[in-house]
């Protein structure tokens, strides 16, 4: 017989004090029948919730015959709790409804089901054996592409495990999104790991699979876990905290916002986070949404930013960094960081690192290199340097750290840094400020100047009557001797020094100083190093400028010196691209290759001038040659000359700033040096074709020599231009003449070195019809290497 509830009224009291608990106790074992009589569904599979109306999130599981249920929207409870929610009444009213339902004869309670004999691990393994990898229609509808074991009916099989790694069951997700647990599954504390981070320092726990997979898209660094539902968040979080006591645990909450109703997802997440000193990341939305919804609507980048920004601890803790100044000023030690570093997200650790640098960091757009403003210039910092600083912060805070924790903090911080601007070309930096060549004024430093280089010296006003002769006698003596007392050449050397001082790489020129040993070339290089600053100068070779891997070594410097170069012969593609302002490929070790412009002045110093095979004009337009011919006798050389000139550097700088107040004058002087006789003489020494063109006269029209070819007979160097070139090469003992095709291509550039134009056209009539006629003739000075007996003097 079923129990019968009998009670009496006592005055104004409707039930005894123990009425509710008595009804609850007597109803245990009969809840399926009671709820059916109250028109409340008792389906074991997930379906619509009779209390909140949520779809596919309600399940009646009747644990221990107590009428228990679960809804991911409105929570879980016992049978009496469910009656209260459905009827929107209090406990006493719900108990009265249950008592009335039980007043009728009740069926015999179902005997407690025996524990399944089938081992759940074996059962899941059998299901998995029947499954095959595939794409779930459910995940596709969620905007996710990820293979999972698929059953024959198109359902997804999600295997669950406990903290010890044992299989505890599985969840089956049908194509329409309805879910059920495989019979015998132990859900409490079971989960599925959908992404294993490099280290378990950050654990992100989501309710369902789709949310977990979405979080994986924008937080691939973390270990991502699906806890199946909101009710299992707390048990799973506790398992994770027990296994990983130092990990940062983040609950990726569902925002179950609904006016006038509790936010179940948020509440469950906060409860779980509080229990394990973790964090909550809640999608900010005016409507119900989880991180999968946010990911689909806004994309991975916006979702990543929103996820990091939304993180909070339920107690409302904020990231507070307290810095303790060390004697000396710049070095900082972290006295306290709240919350602890190992409880922070990557973005928050990045904020700590940024605070360590007082916020004075920016990033170069091309190289992705972080720069730090030190009060004078923006100094590049490698990722390794930043990582070492972050590690020191951990050490100061006495918190254990991992390589991944350090790296993720640096990488995340870089994403939020401002991009560096462009340095104004009218500014010249000094240790105590900048000189504006446009206004002629000196002013303090400003971080927005984006200076990358500055002189190590302070700027100061000149002394009364200051001149190079009287106040920089050592420099003046070197200068006059190097130029052989040529006043015009002295001005051109000074213009080259100004180009280095002002870092006018944008003039698209490079300097080449050549001459015998002891002529002052090395002193020129040392003076340029002083003007640019030793920290801004790098030594390289022509080969380094042409190799992307070696080019990485010159990035970040304002002066590239190629000292004591051996004889170079090549097309000069690297130096042409760098000085031409083109982006060049950089392939640094342990970093991704990139392209950037190298804002540096290039200075080559050699005993023998470089030889370039490129005669298109690209090198010639950029090359400024200085030939120092005066050798200082051994007994007159001063080994301390460079040190003495360094003591005069302030005078030299002031003179350059005054002398070239109009910077274009310096540029014009360098162009003048390009066309100088000494520069042409050097080019003739290094380029046989340029030297050959020195023996030619240019006509206005194409009425000169026939170009010809090597196969024409008889060999007539006074009639055929190409024969004349071959005769020149032979007479000078030079092998490997250029081909006829290359001869035609290179002649215009070689002739332009003399300010002459090379032209040719095809003859259309007369005895030379069909032949190519040039506009050049042999000069009178060819007789030195072209005997009159060679060829035919009368043109036949």
Brief write-up:
The protein has 796 residues and is of the alpha/beta class.
Short descriptors:
single chain, alpha/beta, Dna Topoisomerase Vi A Subunit, Chain: A, domain 2, disordered N terminus, 5-stranded parallel beta sheet, DNA Primase, Chain A, elongated, 796 residues, disordered C terminus, 28 helices, 35 strands, 6-stranded mixed beta sheet
Q: What does the model show?
A:
This is DNA primase. One of its GO terms (biological process) is DNA replication, synthesis of primer. One of its GO terms (molecular function) is DNA binding. It comes from Klebsiella oxytoca. Keywords: ATP-binding, DNA replication, DNA-directed RNA polymerase, Helicase, Hydrolase, Nucleotide-binding, Nucleotidyltransferase, Primosome, Transcription, Transferase. The structure is a single chain. The protein has 796 residues and is of the alpha/beta class. It folds into five domains: 19-103, DNA Primase, Chain A (Alpha-Beta Complex); 120-312, 3-Layer(aba) Sandwich (Dna Topoisomerase Vi A Subunit, Chain: A, domain 2); 320-415, no CATH class; 468-684, P-loop containing nucleotide triphosphate hydrolases (Rossmann fold), CATH 3.40.50.300; 687-784, Winged helix-like DNA-binding domain superfamily/Winged helix DNA-binding domain (Arc Repressor Mutant, subunit A). It is 34% helix and 17% strand. It has 28 helices and 35 strands. The strands form twelve sheets. A six-stranded mixed sheet has the order 9-11-10-12-13-14, with helices on both faces. The protein has a five-stranded parallel sheet with strand order 24-25-29-23-31. The protein is elongated, with a radius of gyration of 42 Å.
């Amino acid at each position: 017989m079923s129990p019968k509830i009998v009670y009496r009224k006592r005055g104004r009291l409707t039930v005894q004090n123990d009425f509710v608990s008595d009804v609850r106790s007597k109803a245990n074992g009969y809840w399926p029948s009671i709820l059916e009589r109250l028109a409340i569904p008792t389906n074991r599979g997930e379906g619509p919730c009779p209390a909140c109306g949520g779809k596919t999130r309600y399940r009646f599981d009747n644990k221990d015959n107590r009428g228990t249920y679960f809804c991911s929207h409105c929570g879980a409870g016992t049978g009496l709790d469910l009656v209260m929610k459905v009827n929107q009444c209090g406990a006493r009213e719900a108990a009265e409804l249950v008592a009335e339902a039980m007043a009728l004869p009740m069926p015999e309670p179902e005997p407690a089901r025996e524990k399944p004999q089938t081992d759940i691990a074996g059962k899941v393994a059998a299901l998995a054996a029947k499954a095959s990898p595939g794409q779930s229609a459910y995940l596709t509808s969620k905007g996710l592409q990820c293979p999972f074991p698929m059953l024959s009916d198109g359902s997804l099989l999600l295997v669950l495990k406990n903290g010890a790694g044992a299989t505890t069951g599985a969840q089956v997700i049908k194509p329409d999104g309805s879910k059920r647990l495989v019979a015998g599954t132990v859900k409490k504390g079971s989960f599925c790991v959908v992404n294993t981070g490099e280290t378990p320092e950050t654990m992100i726990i989501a309710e369902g699979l789709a949310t977990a997979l979405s979080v994986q898209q924008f937080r691939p660094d973390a270990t991502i876990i699906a806890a199946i539902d909101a009710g299992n968040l707390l048990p799973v979080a506790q398992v994770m905290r027990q296994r990983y006591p130092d990990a940062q645990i983040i609950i990726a909450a569902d925002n179950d916002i609904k006016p006038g109703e509790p936010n179940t997802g948020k509440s469950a997440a906060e409860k779980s986070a509080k229990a394990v000193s973790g964090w909550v990341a809640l999608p900010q939305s005016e409507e119900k949404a989880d991180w999968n919804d946010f990911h689909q609507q806004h994309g991975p980048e916006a979702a990543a930013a929103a996820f990091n920004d939304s993180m909070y601890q339920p107690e409302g803790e904020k990231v507070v960094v307290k810095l303790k100044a060390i004697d000396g000023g710049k070095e900082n030690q972290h006295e306290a960081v709240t919350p602890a570093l190992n409880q922070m997200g990557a973005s928050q650790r990045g904020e700590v690192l940024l605070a360590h640098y007082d916020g004075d960091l920016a990033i170069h757009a091309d190289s992705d290199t972080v720069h730090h403003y030190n009060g004078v210039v923006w100094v590049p910092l490698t990722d390794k340097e930043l990582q070492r600083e972050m590690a020191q912060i951990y050490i100061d805070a006495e918190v254990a750290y991992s390589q991944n924790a350090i790296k993720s903090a640096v990488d995340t911080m870089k994403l939020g840094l401002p991009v560096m601007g462009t340095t104004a070309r009218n500014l010249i930096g000094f240790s105590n400020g900048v000189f504006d060549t446009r206004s002629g004024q000196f002013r303090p430093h400003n971080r927005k100047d984006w200076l990358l280089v500055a002189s190590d010296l302070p700027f100061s006003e000149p002394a009364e009557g200051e001149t190079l002769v009287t106040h920089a006698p050592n420099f003046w003596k070197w200068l006059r001797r190097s130029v052989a007392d040529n006043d015009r050449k002295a001005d051109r050397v000074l213009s080259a020094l100004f180009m280095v001082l002002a870092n006018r790489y944008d003039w698209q020129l490079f300097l080449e100083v050549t001459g015998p040993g002891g002529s002052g070339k090395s002193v020129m290089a040392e003076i340029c190093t002083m003007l640019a600053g030793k920290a801004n100068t790098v030594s390289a070779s022509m080969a380094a400028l042409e190799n992307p891997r070696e080019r990485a070594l010159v990035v970040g410097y304002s002066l590239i010196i190629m000292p004591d170069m051996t004889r170079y012969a090549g097309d000069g593609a690297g130096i042409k691209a760098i000085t031409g302002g083109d982006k060049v490929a950089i392939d640094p070790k342990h970093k991704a290759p990139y392209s950037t412009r190298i804002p540096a002045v290039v200075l080559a110093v050699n005993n023998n001038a470089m030889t370039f095979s490129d005669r298109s004009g690209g090198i010639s337009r950029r090359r400024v040659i200085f030939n120092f011919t005066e050798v200082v006798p051994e007994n007159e050389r001063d080994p301390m000359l460079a040190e003495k000139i360094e003591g005069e550097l302030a005078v030299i700088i002031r003179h350059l700033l005054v002398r070239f107040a109009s910077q274009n004058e310096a540029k014009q002087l360098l162009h003048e040096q390009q066309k100088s006789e000494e520069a042409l003489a050097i080019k003739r020494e290094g380029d046989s074709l340029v030297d050959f063109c020195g023996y030619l006269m240019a006509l206005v029209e194409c009425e000169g020599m026939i170009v010809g070819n090597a196969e024409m007979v008889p060999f007539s160097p006074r009639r055929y231009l190409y024969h004349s070139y071959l005769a020149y090469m032979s007479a000078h003992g030079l092998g490997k003449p250029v081909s006829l095709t290359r001869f035609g291509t290179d002649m215009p550039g070689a002739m332009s070195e003399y300010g002459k134009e090379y032209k040719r056209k095809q003859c259309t009539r007369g005895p030379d019809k069909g032949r190519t006629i040039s506009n050049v003739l042999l000069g009178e000075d060819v007789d030195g290497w072209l005997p009159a007996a060679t060829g035919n003097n009368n043109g036949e």
